[in-house]
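Issue 218. Parser rejects a valid record. Input:
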Amino acid sequence: LDTARQELEEFIPHVKNISDSSVKKMAGRDLMRFKEFKKQGIAVKFGRFSQKENKQIRKNVEEFLALTGIDSAEKLLFTSRYPEDKDTIHRLKTEHHFCEKISEGIPRPWRLIYYRARKMFDPNNYKGRYTTEEKEKLKTYHALHGNDWKKISELMCRSNLSVAMKFSEIKSAINYGPWTKEETQKLMNAVKEVMRRKLQAENPSSLSSLEQSDTDAWIDREKLCQQLPWTEIETKVGSRYWRQCKQKWNSILTSKLTKGQELYRGTNGLQAKINLIKRLYETKAEDANEVNWDELSNAIGDVPRTYVQSKFYRLKVSSVPLWKRKTFSEIVDYLYEKKLPELEEKL
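Output the parser choked on:
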């Protein structure tokens, strides 16, 4: 187990925080795959799945169905919904090495690929807006079963993720209007509290000197841009659901980190656009999800990824004709070939 953990750490730095049982599974399902990808010079990926990866998952699932004769992706990935076929499906999955086949060609942990496949192929995931009746049912089921989203999803014929997110949205009186000063302050206090706790957990001694300071500058900019426990923050704010809190925080963060900077004015602004277009062109990415936006933000200044993404959005909307009909790579090519010379001439 210790050896497996050490070997996996090369590919997954946070493996020390993963349970022993999960490490054992990863050692069997992932370690050899990761080593093969390393030989090919391919790094293990996390974060959002790209269009290319989604296509590969779809291909892997379709090929496995053709190989085994299982007649639907739902039966393959949600076997518990078909108790009469369960034993046969499990036998076929074992005989034909389901784990290896489903993850073929995708440099990610098997578990993440499996969850992504389930999300893509769950027919309960694409049922449109909730009716008033469904919302009332959801409240009733939650009162009976608590946060047992698997049970509730079966009762409502919606996916686990869908019912959990919808309940988060409707469980209290949600304000959809402009944020008040009081709400904004509650949000900032909630973020500060969870960030302080996170920092203390990572480095218990780090707060001793910070407690004596009246400033909030102790939080690294990089950490501010990382994933936060939004459902917990939602509870602390009280009047907004988690997605609203996340969007508002991103706008506050962007505003604060760029306040007072002259990054996008005059010649600095032209240079920033030029750098952004060049760096995007150099990535040779086919899809926006393949771009490392955090790394790219360094190309134009010490700003969060959301700021770089919004800058790219404004560039394509204002400069690329019929951009909605173009692929990501076509948009970048156009900016590089047509807009870049124009910007360089202005500079």
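Fixed in the parser; the record now loads. Residues 206-222 have pLDDT under 50 and may be disordered.
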